[in-house]
Amino acid sequence: MGEEYPLTTRCLAELLGTYILVFIGPGSVITFSSTLGFESPAAALFGIGFSFAIAVAVAIYVTGHISGTHINPAVTISLAAIKRFPIKEVIPYIVCQLIGAVLASATHLAIYGKDVCQKVYFGLTLPGDIIGNNAAIACLNEIVMTFILMFTIMGVAVSGKAPEGWAGWTIGLVVGALIWWGGPISGTSLNPARTFGPAVLSGNWTAHWVYWVGPIVGAVIAAFIYEYLFIKIKESKVTE
Question: Is the pLDDT of residue 184 over 60?
């Protein structure tokens, strides 16, 4: 998908797609904390999760035909690991994803100002109080959640067997549901770029490794399982 576009165009699409994700997603965290408050944690969590769901769906429908809408280094790396994405294009994609995330967080700074943004560290993901701020448990949670996300991506976007046109909302709603579940535990990053932008602008690098290791490990495991236990096995049976 998107092979007809030059790498520079696809990288620009990744930058803009990640910008959309981080501007709307972590931006909703800043909005709830500053304007609406967290008096109702359940309502805030639902609103933030649905904001992320919309952002992911919009990014997929707008840039999917151009770049494939990875908007996530973990997705790019896992697709390269199963040879569904050129290894030589991994670094350009990831660099542009990170730039898009930083630009989105910089936009939050311009709109809200540092004092407001810094209340929630620009929407940064951190290990939650519910797990005693334990980075290892947060990492495990990110592995499991990103496994679910990547397994969904493989099923609805990579396999080519899902109903056409549903990938954006399916993936977006999975992200939203994972935020409702995992937000209090690890912040539900699922995406190194999503955490990188707020980290750069806030200067808070607490347990930052969690949000690279967890998503990448979870995504790679899911990609291999789906590719070699579902797609390849079926293809081999068809050719027999």
Answer: yes
Distance of CA 79 to the CA centre of its chain: 14
Please report where in the chains the tokens 């929407």 appear, as a residue.
123
What is the DSSP code string of 131-187? GTT-HHHHHHHHHHHHHHHHHHHIIIIISS-SPTT-HHHHHHHHHHHHHHHHHHHH-
Q: Are 220 and 72 in contact (CB under 8 A)?
A: no
What kind of fold does domain 7-239 have according to CATH? Glycerol uptake facilitator protein (1.20.1080)
Amino acid making up residue 5: Y
Residue 154 CB contacts under 8 Å (≥ 6 apart), including other chains: 222, 223, 226, 227, 230, 231
Residue tagged 């790019």 (tokens): 76
d(CA 34, CA 184): 18
Residue 59: which of 75, 46, 47 has the closest Cα?
Answer: 75
Q: From residue 192, how far is each of 63, 135, 197, 213 by CA, in Å?
A: 19, 15, 9, 9
E strands present in the chain: none
Report the C-alpha gap between 70 and 10 in whole angstroms: 10
Number of helical H runs and strand E runs in the chain: 10, 0
CA–centroid distance for 196 within its chain = 11
Closest to 198 (Cα-Cα) out of 18, 55, 44, 76: 18
Distances (CA, A) of 186 to 18, 32, 204, 236: 20, 18, 15, 39
- pLDDT digit string (tens) for 114-148? 999 999 999 999 999 999 999 999 999 999 999 99
Residues in the chain: 240
